[in-house]
Specification:
The structure is a single chain. The protein is an alpha/beta fold. The chain has 6 helices and 12 strands. Strand 9 and strand 10 form a beta hairpin.
């Protein structure tokens, strides 16, 4: 089984790049499932219903979120009917939406789970370690793909080592900077951060001048998403359905 996971899609240029590249990638690599982090899809923070439906139309099967999951209040009007949208299981509010979903791929059950790290993050109700340990009995004999949306690389690496024989993939998101540490930890595909599918000439997706002004001490209340063409960051994972073990993880980065 081949799974493509696309890193944080940021703004208009990120969406456009997915639309442009995904069909050919899906065909070229015979991809069975496409997952994408979409917490920055709408103007760089949060996701509205129109953009959720838009990126699904480009060939994405499951959309995960992160610490900005509830940044747009509109999400509360559609999240319960959005059956392919996964919010972080362990952040508040915990009584809306789905923290994981199950996908049936030709008889093979795949769990897509979204967790937030507990270091330098807000509104985290319980650690990802505690959440994962609690959920594992429900995931028996299923392929488990985790989007671990976290700041600290140490937390992500430790999590992968803790669950290296129960998760098929632990994929870091949030920092928007792709790391070069993709590898197999036990039978689990791992990378500290998949990277950002968003404006290439930017500061993690934001307008460079505004960010520089902030660092120079000027008051900047909001940051504008850069309108530059986007890079495409993702990982391709190959999993053996017979034993749920990852065979390989390949890092992809396509620059404009």
């Amino acid at each position: 089984m081949k799974i493509l996971f696309i890193g944080d899609i940021v703004g208009k240029s990120g969406r456009a790049t997915v639309k442009e590249l995904l069909p050919s990638l899906r065909s070229e690599h015979a991809i069975d499932l496409v997952i994408a982090n979409g917490e920055n899809v709408t103007h760089g923070k949060g996701i509205n219903e129109a953009h959720y439906k838009e990126i699904l139309s480009y060939g994405i099967d499951v959309v995960t979120l992160g610490n900005h999951a509830f940044s747009k209040s509109e999400i509360f009007t559609y999240i319960e009917k959005a059956d392919r949208l996964v919010r972080p299981y362990n952040i508040t509010p915990m009584d809306v939406g789905k923290g994981f979903i199950e996908v049936d791929l030709k008889g093979t059950k795949v769990i897509v789970l979204n967790l937030c790290g507990s270091i330098f993050m807000n509104n985290v109700e319980e650690t990802p370690f505690d959440s994962m340990a609690k959920l594992l009995p429900f995931f028996k004999d299923k392929i488990v793909i985790v989007d671990l949306h976290a700041e600290a690389t140490s937390e992500k690496i430790a999590f992968a080592h803790q669950f290296k024989y129960t998760c098929s993939a632990v994929l870091g998101t949030h920092t928007h900077v792709q790391t070069a540490d993709e590898r197999l930890i036990g039978s689990c595909a791992y990378i500290s951060d998949v990277g950002m599918t968003g404006p290439y000439n930017s500061v993690i997706g934001r307008d460079i001048t505004e960010v520089l002004d902030k660092f120079k001490g000027f008051e900047v209340k909001t940051f504008t998403v850069s309108e530059d063409k986007a890079q495409f960051c993702a990982v391709l994972i190959d999993i053996d359905e017979s034993n749920r073990r990852a065979r390989s993880i390949t890092r992809l980065q396509i620059r404009p």
